[in-house]
Design a protein that fits this description.
mainly alpha, 2 helices, globular, two-stranded parallel sheet, 90 residues, 2 strands
Length: 90
């Protein structure tokens, strides 16, 4: 319901709510996975996006520890920023 705004104004998305619980895997290869759906939608509407949360002690953090080991969701978004997700390669 909010994508129409991008037709007239700059829109930049930063909050997605995509995180795996400890020990769970994200279904990143599944086209129905919310991460693929929201990034595809943003890109189709020319909506800019980024992720953040580089604090392992904060819920939703993209690193596992202060050694900067990436979480599965950081790996997913990093691939998206590089255009390396399966749907981006088509």
């Amino acid at each position: 319901d909010w994508g129409f705004v991008a037709q007239d104004y700059p829109v930049f998305a930063t909050e997605f709510g995509i995180d795996a619980r400890r020990g769970e895997k994200l279904p990143t290869k599944d086209p129905e996975f919310y991460g693929n759906q929201i990034l595809s939608y943003c890109e189709s509407q020319d909506i800019g996006w980024c992720i953040w949360g580089f604090d392992p002690e904060w819920g939703g953090g993209k690193i596992k520890s202060w050694n900067y080991e990436p979480t599965e969701s950081l790996n997913f978004f990093s691939a998206g920023m590089k255009g390396q997700l399966d749907w981006q390669k088509k």
